[in-house]
């Protein structure tokens, strides 16, 4: 079992905040521009199905792919987009989104945090989920809870496959060869530092945990 680790990155202020804001602006812009065409494709598939009766296997595949892409973009919009301490995300919105993602992938998500939540904490939870996915190549069950302001994400799987150098990025030790698909390992500790939170993580053979 990897030892529990935690780190609060030093925060300089204005530079960290401005860089984070720029990254979030880019994320929001990309997701905003993608949601509309994906919605148009989804509507077009529905209209074709209504006009021709039963959907063909090909049309069904297109519909499922568009729905999966649409859900993922909505997820990315929160994970990589702008957030503030004033904004909140409803419990129903989160659970509906994660249900859509669970229906089309190997991961099954259970959002057990009660009530509407501040958007910046939802953002951190989503970034943590993306981090955990990298260590779960066989899929699994991921439960997200919030108790008295403390967030816990626990994933169970047949077998984990963590990249230790990558996970050490959560302690501020980012590898030089970080790939675009791993950017969440840089963004999560940065977001945590901006909100005065510590990141703790632990990975075993069949379980992974992140808390903040």
TrEMBL record:
> What InterPro entries is this protein classified in?
ChpT_C (IPR018762), HATPase_C_sf (IPR036890)
| Residue ranges of every copy of the Histidine phosphotransferase ChpT C-terminal domain listed in the record | 92-206
Name this polypeptide is given = Histidine phosphotransferase family protein
Q: Which residues form a coiled coil?
A: none
Q: Looking at the Swiss-Prot or TrEMBL record, what is one Pfam family this protein matches?
A: HPTransfase
């Amino acid at each position: 079992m990897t030892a529990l680790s935690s780190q609060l990155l030093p925060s300089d202020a204005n530079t960290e905040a401005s860089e984070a804001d720029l990254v979030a602006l880019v994320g929001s812009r990309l997701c905003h521009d993608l949601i509309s065409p994906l919605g148009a494709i989804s509507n077009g598939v529905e209209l074709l199905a209504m006009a021709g009766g039963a959907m063909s296997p090909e049309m069904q595949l297109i519909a499922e792919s568009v729905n999966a892409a649409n859900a993922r973009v909505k997820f990315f919009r929160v994970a990589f987009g702008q957030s503030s301490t004033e904004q909140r995300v409803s419990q129903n919105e989160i659970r509906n989104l994660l249900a859509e993602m669970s229906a089309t992938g190997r991961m099954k998500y259970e959002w057990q945090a009660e009530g509407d939540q501040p958007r910046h904490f939802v953002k951190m939870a989503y970034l943590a989920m993306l981090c955990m996915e990298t260590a779960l190549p066989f899929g699994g069950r991921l439960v997200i809870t919030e108790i008295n302001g403390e967030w816990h994400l626990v994933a169970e799987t047949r077998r984990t496959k963590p990249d230790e150098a990558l996970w050490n990025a959560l302690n501020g030790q980012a590898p030089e060869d970080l790939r675009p698909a791993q950017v969440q390992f840089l963004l999560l500790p940065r977001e945590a530092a901006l909100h005065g939170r510590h990141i703790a993580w632990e990975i075993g053979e069949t379980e992974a945990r992140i808390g903040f």
